[in-house]
Amino acid sequence: MKTDELVALLARGPVAADAHAPEKRLLAATAAASLLALGAMLAALGLRADLSTAVALPMFWLKLLMPAAIGSAAFVACARLSRPGARPAAPWAAIVAALAMVWIASMVDIAMTPPADRHALVFGQSAWLCVLSVSALSLPVLAGGFVTLRLLAPTRPVLAGLAAGALAGGMAATVYALHCSEMALPFLGTWYVIGMAVPALAGALLGPRLLRWP
Predict the structure, then answer these.
(1) pTM score
(2) Which of 22, 45, 81, 172 has the fewest CB atoms in 10 Å of its CB?
(3) Cα 193 to Cα 213: distance, rounded to the nearest angstrom
(4) pLDDT tens by residue, 47-92
């Protein structure tokens, strides 16, 4: 920068920093990575064949709402943890509450189902496909979250990595729900949650390695 340019810059006075810059960066990265995950899902798996009729079923929307809510809460936690000294207690409480409601409703559903039908209710036809697909689809969002956090100032790398992983899992499960034809609540409460837990755990393990300040 030339001297006259520097003088002109200083003459403008202090420039206020954007207070929401971390959220904007994280939102942009999450949106782009989620679109990439959606494209991968469409290419590899495709939309469920009965999508036009499934949209009329409450369970279809619950399968979208639950992981989307977890991803949204994790986004808030991730954004707060991108700043030093953050206390993201409320987003974690929201995630726990969402999981608790799904698990309680799942247990009631299982209890009301004849014993001979409970195995199918929990395992469905695609249990491990669900876990593997959600885990794989989470990779772009997890990578985007870590790249963004490295440009910011997280001081709690384990929690920041956990939040980034939970965000990735929530977005990936939301995308996968557009393909998945399983409609049992216990399936959602078991295999979707396990699928989301995989990137969350990976994020917590990678956080100290990739997000620690030099």
Answers:
(1) 0.89
(2) 45
(3) 31
(4) 999 999 999 999 999 999 999 999 999 999 999 998 887 677 889 9
